[in-house]
Amino acid sequence: MRNGWRWSLAAASLLLVTACNQHNGAALNPAAQGNPPLADVRIEMRPVAEVGEPGVEVRFAHGETVKLANPPVFTTGAIASVRQVVNEDGKANVYYAFTEAAAPRIHSATERLVGRTMVLTVDGEPISRANLSGPFGESMMTSGLEADEATALVTRITGRP
Fold first, then answer.
1. CB of 46 within 8 A of CB of 73?
2. What confidence tens digit (pLDDT) does each residue in 64-102 have?
3. Does residue 12 have a pLDDT over 80?
4. In this structure, are strands 55-59 and 43-47 parallel, antiparallel, or unpaired?
5. Cis peptide bond prior to 71, omega within 30° of 0
6. Overall average pLDDT of the 8-20 stretch
7. pLDDT at 32
8. Rounded to an integer, what is the distance from CA 137 to the centroid of its chain?
9. Which one, 3, 18, 141, 159, has least CB within 10 Å?
10. pLDDT tens digit sequence for 99-152
11. How many other CB atoms are there within 10 angstroms of residue 158's CB atom?
12. Is the pLDDT of residue 23 over 60?
């Protein structure tokens, strides 16, 4: 079962990382309704390393290996809450709200990394990959998951569906 949802998440690895700015409404603001990540869950987002750049290798469930640059753009401690929203078409988004303290640092880092490919990992396992289209700092989302995949991911991160 675990490998099944991991494969599905890896197959959906071309997910979009979308910036949610402070002017968006509650529908895009996960802080009000999400749950914090569990203390023992290790979440990181890193850019894919450029040629010759040192980094950490990770393997997607479908077998592809990529090298991720150091340091991470953010880690678990920067995340205030995580929640899932299922769209009318049955696809799901997972929203990550960042702490007020981490937001300026994340915004600055992502501003420098626009155009780079980013990988989100949970406990060292790559969950999604996306091209960074713009900076973000308050929140971000991954999209395009099936509802059950998103539920499994949110439950894994927060301990709550």
1. yes
2. 999 999 999 999 999 999 999 988 888 899 999 999 999
3. no
4. unpaired
5. yes
6. 42
7. 54
8. 13
9. 3
10. 999 999 999 999 999 999 999 999 999 999 999 999 999 999 988 888 999 999
11. 19
12. no
Residue for token digits 């929640």? 83
Q: Under a CB-based contact definition with an 8 Å cutoff, are residues 119 and 132 in contact? A: no
Asked if pLDDT for residue 57 goes beyond 70, the answer is: yes
Terminal alpha carbon distance of the chain = 17
DSSP string computed for the chain: -HHHHHHHHHHT-SPPEEE--TTS-GGG-GGGT-BPPPTT--EEEEEBPPTT--EEEEE-TTS-EEEEESS-SEEGGGEEEEEEEE-TTSEEEEEEEEPTTTHHHHHHHHHHHTTSEEEEEETTEEEEEEE--S--SSEEEEEEEEHHHHHHHHHHHHS--
For residue 58, the one-letter residue type is: V
Q: Which of 2, 161, 6 is closest to 85 using CA atoms?
A: 161
**Residue 45 pLDDT:** 97
The b-or-e profile of 98-131 (16+ CB within 10 A means b, else e) is bbeebbeebbebbeebeebbbbbbbeebbbbbbe
Gap between the Cα atoms of 73 and 8, Å rounded: 25
